Amino acid sequence: MDIIVCIKQVPDTTTVIQIDPSGKDIVRDGITYIVSPYDEFAIEEALKLKEAGDGTVTVLTVGPESAKEALRTGLAMGADEAIHVVYEGAPSQLDSLTTAKLIAKALEGKKYDLVFCGRQAIDDDALQIGSLVAEFLNVPQISLVIKLEINGEQIKASRTIEGGTQVVESRLPALITAQKGLNEPRYPSMKGILKARKKEITELKAAELGVDLTPRVVLEELRLPPARPAGKIVGSVAELVKALHEEIKVI
Amino acid sequence: MGFDFAYTDEQKMVQESITRMLKRHEDKHVSWRQDIYKHHNFPDALWQAFAETGIMGSFLPEAYGGSDMGLMPLLLALETLSAHGFASVHAVVTAMDALCLLKHGSEELKQRILPKVATGEMRLGYAHTEPDAGSNVFNTATFAKREGDHYVVNGQKVFISGVDSTQKLLLVTRTTSLEDAIAQGNRTYGLTLMLVDCDSPGLEKQFLPLQGLEGIKQWAIFFENMKVPVENVVGTENGGAQIIFDSLNSERILAAGIATGMVDFLLDRSTRYARERKVFGNRAIGSYQAIAHPLAETKIEQEAARLLTYRAAWAFDKGLPPAEVGHFANLAKFKAADVAIKAADHAIETHGGYGFSEEYEVIYYWNTARLFKTAPITREMILNFISEHSLKLPRSY
User: Fold this and answer.
1) CB contacts < 8 Å between A and B, how many?
2) What is the rounded CA–CA span in Å between residue A164 and residue A178?
3) Quick one: which of B384, B395, B260 has its CA closest to B326?
4) What is this model's ipTM?
5) CB–CB of A194 and B52 under 8 A?
6) Does domain B242-390 have CATH number 2.60.40.1180?
């Protein structure tokens, strides 16, 4: 089975985010980047499926030159191939629709049975790529998958829904978005890192793919959440109950 | 290309791999540190998780199950581990022995040992120091007498790490007495290295209640007619001296990495506390220069130590002559040990009375940091080497 995994490089979850003076980007200096955690579940699931049978896993990303690091991580985890759609413009100018079109374009002519995405990238939380890519590839999409079984062409997937689990069936080819709980992603082993060094990354230029890069949704402004007001120290249980009842009105 | 101080993608992945491994076990960190610093055990689960990354094979060729990346990845991994408060002496000594085997061991010995090192299944110890021989290895008295297809070893060693938690020891012996060597006009002649099982008949171990080298126990060992097969010799009979000097370089470099990593841990604890702790009014103590400046100085010195350490590992991986690698390894160990002590001291100072409480953990690192000044080579011996070899001053001893 040949599998594509769409991944995104995002700032490390422990990064202290600051807004750039332009107001349209974060300060990128000194940031450590990681593969978006939901994408790691996607990579892991793809690798497991490959290991259980045969085929290839290709990791794909759209992003600046530095996003190659994310692809290298995917290769070091065990992916066979990598495709980098190099996007050189400002991150604020790249909307989900354009990204999805670029992904679909990059996959033109490529053989695949399954496409994985993380449920969302943890930086912009747009949650759109899975749906958009599925649409452009004209394959069914199953989102928020926490368990996946594939028998021949048949897919059986468990999804998280409010208060429970839903089991759905579909057929290959399809697009799956990975949810936390799907698996425990491996970390790149030293041997994997060594092998990754020898693997080629296929480079495509976003500007040369024939996709209109004009954003339909433009990022206008980024704001940090308001600072949390200082806590209040109460002197007694009675005072606490009173505050919860009268001020915050939770009891 | 000349200087390039950036981490490569690969090196970043090594760091990330170790960080992620540690993150996955975050709930166990405190108990692991207690295991290491209070009970002198290295937690099996931590060793397992560390080994699963494949890091113990990173410096070994692919033919022995490794990934052939040189010493730098292990250095970065140990630094990262240490930055989370875990110093692994096992990794240092095992790597040092394995590198020695790789360079000087027979093919049969390499095939037998190295793949198990690469998976983390086998840990090795190093038995060098004796009551009358340490910095002066030529005083080694443990004697291995050849009898047919094996040696019969008699003697004793002291300050030997992990005789209970490693499978084999790389043992420094004499196969020609010092008197005979001197009579032949070559006092460096006569030392032989051999690999011995920790549970060999004729090997007795005595626990030494020492502090400082944490996560591993220290032993005195006694050999009484211990038999060692001839094929376990590493290098040539009587030609061990040069091998020993070569091998000690990797140990110094890795020890320096652990020390600079420890500074990260201590600075993290210190700054975290200094940002929160208020004593007079509503100001965090970190805003007082008396608290901040020593920490800032520690940071500067740590970066200096780190550069020296990377340079030493770089020289090692470039395959520069051992004397040149040794020069940088010595500088790195010297500087890293000094800054680790400073960081531990300032961490305790920053924490005030809480600096001595196990809850805040910084006190654990006091002995460990101090140990680096003495081992794997003393500060004074390094100064001697630099004086004699770099500055060409007359030998002082």
Assistant:
1) 53
2) 16
3) B384
4) 0.71
5) no
6) no
